[in-house]
Design brief:
Elements (H helix, E strand, L loop, with lengths): L5 E5 L5 H10 L5 E5 L11 H17 L4 E4 L2 H6 L1 H5 L6 E2 L2 H11 L4 E6 L1 H6 L1 H9 L4 E6 L3 H6 L6 H11 L9 E5 L7 H7 L4 E4 H15 L13 E5 L3 H12 L7 E2 L5
Helix pairs in contact: 1-11, 5-7, 5-11
This protein binds D-glutamic acid.
């Protein structure tokens, strides 16, 4: 079982922010990444649809004999993780809890902002995870649906980005927040611009936190691979548009990846 890979899935390419952190923190592990590019975006879909898609993604990764599955997608973590945890015996890790705990660790004012897709924000997943740990915390949330297409198009700075950031985040300016959680796979790519707009506010990006959490779960279950002289395995699968995925991956990983394999009907 130790020899199994870490499975990661996302609605598309955005989960590579999580892939990158896992790769950095767990350099001896094999990683299989699955991006559901035929059905992206998940961020405006219903709970039942997201549970259905996530179940299929997990079943695909299980066929690849993964030892743990990281749900890199905030929307899937928010809407599907709790239902799926009861069904599958493989350790399933989402991004929400880790981000919430980290935000509470760094917040002094206990006023925390959360941004994400519409489905993530409507699910109140971050709010619930924060309040479970600290009932006194105050949460300010905002769906920022235009951030994902901006990042997908590689538009990471400039006047358009500044205006859209202002449009969404100006509501936080006088709220007294001292932390903002970037509750979406894509938002870490806008981190610099968000930090420039919300000066002095600490930015929590769940990618780093979830990688740390995955490492902890692997260690607890005695599933960490020991250091060996071998080339680690990296496999990428998508459900559509492999070339577009490969191109965008460069933006997220700052290096090239091989052309991903397209899977049809979750063979
Ligand atoms: N991966 C999604 C998330 O983190 C963003 C893209 C989508 O809407 O599918 O919420």
């Amino acid at each position: 079982m130790k020899d199994g890979a870490i499975g990661i899935f996302d609605s598309g390419v955005g989960g590579l922010t999580v892939f990158k952190e896992i790769e950095r923190l767990l350099p001896n592990e094999d990683i299989i990444y699955f991006g559901d590019t035929a059905r992206v975006p998940y961020g405006n879909k219903s709970k039942s649809t997201i549970i259905k898609f996530s179940t299929e993604n997990i079943l695909f990764l299980l066929k690849k004999k993964v030892k743990i599955i990281v749900i890199a997608c905030n929307t899937a973590s928010s809407l599907a993780l709790n239902s799926l945890k009861d069904i599958f015996s493989v350790p399933l890790i989402g991004v929400v809890e880790a981000g919430a705990v980290k935000a509470l660790k760094v917040s002094k004012s206990r006023k925390i902002a959360v941004v994400g897709t519409r489905s993530t924000i409507n699910s109140k997943s971050y709010e619930k995870a924060i309040l479970k740990n600290d009932k006194t915390a105050k949460i300010y949330s905002k769906a920022c649906p235009l951030f994902v297409p901006l990042v997908e198009e590689g538009i990471l700075e400039g006047t358009i980005v500044k205006s859209i950031i202002e449009m969404y985040l100006k509501t936080f300016k006088k709220s007294g927040i001292d932390v903002i959680i970037l509750g979406c796979t894509h938002y870490p790519l806008l981190k610099k611009q968000i930090a420039a707009y919300l000066k002095g506010v600490c930015i929590v990006d769940s990618a780093t936190e979830v990688a740390l959490h995955a490492k902890g779960v692997l260690a607890q279950n005695n599933l960490l691979r020991s250091k060996k002289n071998r080339t680690v395995r990296r496999e990428f699968y998508v459900t559509d548009e492999p070339k577009a995925f490969m191109k965008r991956a460069g933006l997220f990983l700052k290096r090239s990846i091989p052309l991903p394999r397209v899977i049809n009907d979750f063979e």
